[in-house]
Amino acid sequence: MEGSVRVRFAPSPTGFLHIGGLRTALYNYLFAKGNDGTFVLRIEDTDQSRYVEGAEEDIKESLKWVGMDIDEGPENSGDVGPYRQSERKDIYEEYAEQLVEQGNAYYAFDTPEELDQMRERLKKSGNPSPKYDAITRMSMKNSLTLPEEEVERKLEEGEEYVIRLKVPRRENIRFEDEVRGFVSFESKGLDDQVLIKSDGMPTYHLANVVDDHLMEISHVIRGEEWLSSTPKHILMYEYFGWEPPKMAHLPLIMSPSGGKLSKRKAESEGIPINTKDYIEQKFEPEALVNFLAYLGWSPGDDTEIHSMDELTDLFSLDRVSKGGAVFDYKKLIWYNEHYLREKPADELFPRVKAIANEHGIDPDEEYMKEIIPLMKDRVSKVEDFVTMGKFFFEDPEEYEEQAKKKWKDNSAELLQAYVDEIKEFDEDDFEAGKLKDKIKEIVEAHDVGWGPLMMPLRVAVSGMGYGPDLTPTLELLGKETTVRRIETAIEKLG
User: Fold this and answer.
1) Are residues 131 and 153 both part of a single domain?
2) DSSP letters for 219-284
3) Would you please indicate which residues are annotated as catalytic (active-site) residues?
4) Within this chain, do residues 14 and 63 fall inside the same structural domain, yes or no?
5) Is the pLDDT of residue 415 over 70?
6) Whole-angstrom Cα distance, residue 447 to residue 460?
7) The CATH number of the domain where 267 resides is what?
């Protein structure tokens, strides 16, 4: 690969970091790190009207949470800053003026009303998608149609204007996409893109071309929704006489029910849409990274579990898929369960303790560190240690409806037989193996299977019909608690 790899993640602070944005950042990051390159964070805040307070902080915190270190950005400047577009306004003006001087752009003085009239007029004459382009520009109010003196006067008097790109009427614009191969667009489908808005701020199109060039970006890796804007960018590179970076457009993230995963769809399908939601819902960051990496890419073998470092070694753009990737929430939970199981009790304890405290429980460290390994195979998220494991700290106040259905006519009788036996145990004998032998004895004596005793026993001690391995659970609860809970259940459920 010639030259050094420099990529950028360039979000707009118009809201919290969306999960699709996080995947774009991840692919940029993996590509940079796998090629000893540089990962740049650039904040594209030129649309001041849509600026959301706290959004930039959210972006930085999200990247930090998943473990993506920023090499250059607003906090740690390299030598191509500033890294916020709002602080680069003068740079863009200079380049837009250069295009005007070259005859590749022009001043347009049309008012919003005049633009609306133009669109209405074209719609009436049967044009379904009217735009300001090579054909319509000649009937509008701009520096191509007005006398030079009038243009000078308007500029001197400070009349509002925009600068538009002069898109050629008949040209085939072709470029190679690292994911899609060769892509070509007819210029007649493009409008004369606004480059500088009337407030003097650049649009995304001008700012991102100028910045990618000045920041020496080697590869632009972004979402598929920018594919149709790329020909305008390619034209600008041509006009400036610059070599464009390599382009790679990532597949859309699809909803399980079909179509693009929009905010509305995600909400209706119970999929958290912002990275912030995953942080608040206490997902394992490694699980989210592993899941997102596979959302549109695969290493080409059967492996599914990879750390960030391994992904860095494996990732390449030629293995990114062209088709949309379906967001499979169950798969994400599967990853989460995997990464929770990998973590030792020592590492999990402080997090579990904090959650327990929120639930009004103050767990003893030693006791909790015995509960964690016992529950590991049953939990999907870290708070399950507390919500599902609440019965380790307090007697069940009620029994779940589903659990009560497992209480049959002979349940009380079988439990009574069991509790009478285990009352005789010494504290030292109260251990999983011996408790299990005793269950076997009782079910054989009553000529029933394991279920008729195990199920009500679980309901009695936990109030639930599911949970961690039963006899080690009884051992942890201890003799006194186990006996008390069984007797209460017999009394309450009869």
Assistant:
1) yes
2) EEEEEGGGGGGHHHHHHHHHHHT-PPPEEEEEPPEEPTTSSB--HHHHHHTT---BHHHHHHTT--
3) 263
4) yes
5) yes
6) 21
7) 1.10.1160.10
Model confidence at 2: pLDDT above 80: no
CATH of the domain at 455: 1.10.10.350
> What is the DSSP secondary structure assignment for residue 2, as one 8-state letter?
-
Beta bridge mates, 221: 248
Residue 227 lies in a domain: yes
Exposure string (b/e) for 93-102, b if CB count within 10 Å is 16 or more? bebbeebbee
Going by their DSSP bridges, the two strands 162-165 and 194-196 should be labelled as antiparallel
Longest CA pairwise span in the chain (Å): 109
Do 376 and 296 fall within a single domain? no
In which domain, by residue range, is 353 found? 343-392
Q: Which residues pair with 194 in a beta bridge?
A: 164
> Does the annotation place 322 within a ligand binding site?
no
The whole-number pLDDT of residue 396 equals 93
Give the model's pLDDT for residue 335: 98
Residues 102 and 175 in one domain: yes
Domain count, the chain: 5
Q: What is the pTM of this model?
A: 0.92
Residue 47 in tokens = 């649309």
Using CB atoms within 10 Å of the CB of residue 20, give its burial: 0 to 12 exposed, 13 to 18 middle, 19+ buried.
Answer: buried
Q: What is the mean pLDDT of residues 61-78?
A: 96
